[in-house]
Design brief:
single chain; about 625 residues; alpha+beta; Aminopeptidase; eight-stranded antiparallel β-sheet; seven-stranded mixed β-sheet; about 25% strand
Length: about 625
């Protein structure tokens, strides 16, 4: 489905659509006859009314119509009608979002809606509120929320082309194991959510038919071109789920498979021309040489240096003295596992644990906390030979969470004394450096980390206490300025743990998109299209009680989206490719306007995932069941 301007030659057909849509609610012929003149669309007033049509891209059939009327700053949503047979498929939501986008661009601050009584709940769910002063119809008012500054900087005010080149990015820093390659393929699905409103996405794994259509419905997107199955292991597979997509094209049979996703795109000239021809910004999951060649935006040598955990620690040590509520763990380099063992034993014997890390690693991979001699040996066996990084473990200890910082209190960030007890153990700051080198704050998120493995994040009002968020944002901004100076351009985050003395301890920098970044993107889209200030929680790994083939998975997700909507929450499926793995799981994001609804949605989704095991359990016939 795409949305376009209405044409004068279709005025009669659109008028008939409006009347069919009105009749869907059970009005009799006499009532419809009385409404006919008011609902008839005049060919001569289409431009004045800013009339748009939602069109089926395959057939060209009109599926819905909407209008934005009046002069800024106060306007009217004059029409919003959907063909009855597609009501409930997200067409109305997409049209409403399109009108809000147009209103924002034209400087409208308020839109009045004189709603059919049957549509009031629809508009209220999208952020409109009832007001007095209407006539025979209920009147509502919606105020198009302004687009956040960081969204404008990230997308340049346009839709985007997303690249799920997770594995390609990771491979710059070391060879990936088969397991890591498989995991990066699943994780790359998050790239479709790498901006609030993509136009095209390229993915290494083949995704289930219907997944992106479900995303479009939930996030009020128009059509998104999908090119999937371009992983190096399946370099001859390419699918284009769009009418005007490039024809399938494969690399010559005697060529070696491309080494990564962007390289695979460049090996297909027709696909490269198609993506470049869209004239939209490219958003790779992470910067690589091939992604820079594809987009025309390359980074200078050394711009990714702070992806290194040792380089990041050195930067943190340099910046920390200016930030009273920041502490930085001491980090030592061990040439091999035995030297790492010696350093960790010293920490354990002194009654304090240690952390051992590889130089690079994502989502907690390569990072282990060691707090006892018993835990030391299996950890060392799991690590590469070296070199390794050993850090102090700061999150346990006898110190009170209200103990004062040893630094003098200065600046606006406060000190550890100011931090409330509910500061999460793991949190992150997200920001971006735009093409001009300006740093933009995105926000702070509460991370869900099991041991050292990242599981998800929560963003939105109250997710991180205000004082802790202020500390993280001030330090994250300082890091961003250093990144800009080094030549880096793009998304980044700084991860923190809360130390035993209450201060925030930065642990690493990620120069790429991340799980929390996706939560911020979804929040921005929900806030723009549904109004309010949403809480959004990402659950990147929801175990399934049974393996689900693609068709059954999409049907199950469809059912879950409806059940979540029934409790006032939004479900956005994010990782759909692992549901038939030996250990099946899915990734989802949940949005709601209150913490209670968000928690209820999480309980609903995790419970439903576990229930799959009971639904598909073998029947016990020992008691004579038939």
């Amino acid at each position: 489905m795409r949305i376009r301007e209405a044409r004068p030659d279709e005025a009669c057909a659109l008028s008939a659509l409006v009347l069919r849509s009105k009749a869907h609610w059970g009005y009799d012929e006499a009532f419809l006859a009385a409404c006919r003149d008011e609902l008839t669309i005049s060919a001569g007033r289409m431009t004045e009314r800013r009339l748009v049509v939602a069109e089926d891209e395959m057939s060209g059939e009109a599926l819905g119509v909407a209008s934005l009327e009046g002069r800024a700053p106060d306007g009217t949503l004059g029409l919003l009608f959907v063909e009855p047979r597609v009501i409930g498929l997200g067409i109305g939501r997409a049209l409403f979002a399109h009108v809000l986008d147009t209103a924002r661009a034209w400087g409208f601050e308020r839109l009045t809606i004189d709603s059919d009584p049957h549509a009031v709940d629809f508009y209220r769910a999208l952020g409109a509120r009832p007001v007095r002063g209407g006539g025979a119809l209920p009147r509502l008012l919606v105020e198009p929320p302004p687009r956040r500054a960081w969204v404008r900087a990230w997308t340049r005010g346009l839709r985007t082309v997303q690249l799920g080149n997770v594995g390609e990015f990771q491979a710059q820093f070391g060879e990936l194991t088969p397991l890591a390659r498989r995991a990066s393929g699943h994780y790359s699905c998050l790239a479709v959510l790498g901006s609030p409103y993509p136009a095209a996405v390229v993915l290494p794994e083949t995704v289930p038919p219907g997944w992106v259509e479900l995303l479009c419905r939930q996030l009020a997107w128009e059509s998104v071109e999908v090119y999937d199955g371009l992983g190096a292991a399946a370099h001859t597979a390419e699918a284009a789920h769009a009418t005007d997509a490039a024809p399938a094209e494969t690399a010559p049979a005697d060529d070696a498979p491309p080494s990564g996703l962007a390289a695979a795109i460049l090996a297909r000239p027709a696909l490269t021309r198609r993506l470049r021809g869209l004239g939209l910004p490219f958003v790779p999951w992470g910067h690589t040489g091939p992604s820079g060649e594809l987009s025309g935006e390359t980074l200078p040598p050394g711009a990714l240096r702070y992806e290194s955990k040792s380089a990041a620690n050195t930067l943190f040590q340099r910046l920390a003295p200016a930030h009273a509520a920041i502490t930085v763990p001491v980090q030592r380099t061990a040439a091999n596992r035995w030297e790492a063992a010696r350093l960790l034993l010293a920490r354990i014997r002194s009654g304090e644990g240690g952390v051992v890390k590889t130089e690079h690693g994502v989502g907690g991979s390569g990072t282990h906390v060691v707090r006892s001699v018993r835990a030391l040996l299996p950890v060392l066996r799991a690590l590469p030979p070296g070199p390794l990084l050993v850090e102090d473990y700061l999150t346990d200890g006898p110190a009170s969470p209200y103990s004062a910082s040893p630094h003098s209190a200065s600046g606006r960030e406060g000190t550890a004394r100011d931090l409330p007890r509910d500061v999460p153990r793991d949190l992150t700051y997200d920001g971006l450096v735009d093409t001009a080198g300006t740093v933009h704050d995105v926000g702070a998120a509460r991370m869900d980390v099991a041991d050292t493995a990242y599981r998800g994040a929560t963003v939105g009002p109250g997710a991180v206490p205000e004082q802790a968020a202020s500390i993280a944002l001030r330090f994250g901004q300082a890091v961003g300025l250093e990144l800009a100076e080094s030549g880096y351009r793009g998304w980044y985050d700084v991860d923190f743990v809360t130390a035993a003395d209450g201060r925030l301890a930065p642990t690493e920098i990620n120069l790429r998109l991340t799980g929390p970044s996706v939560a911020f993107m979804v929040k921005a889209r929900l806030d723009e299209t549904r109004g309010g200030d949403h809480l959004v929680r990402s659950l990147d790994h929801v175990p399934l009680g049974a393996r689900l083939p693609d068709t059954e998975l999409i049907a199950w997700l469809e059912e879950l989206t409806g059940r979540c909507a029934g409790i006032g929450a939004v479900l956005v499926p994010s990782i759909p490719t692992a549901a038939f793995d030996p250990a099946p799981f899915v990734g989802v994001l949940l949005g709601a306007r209150t913490p209670d609804r968000l928690d209820a949605a999480e309980a609903l989704v995790t419970g439903a995932a576990q229930d799959l095991g009971r639904i598909f359990a073998p029947v016990d016939r020992s008691a004579g069941a038939t």
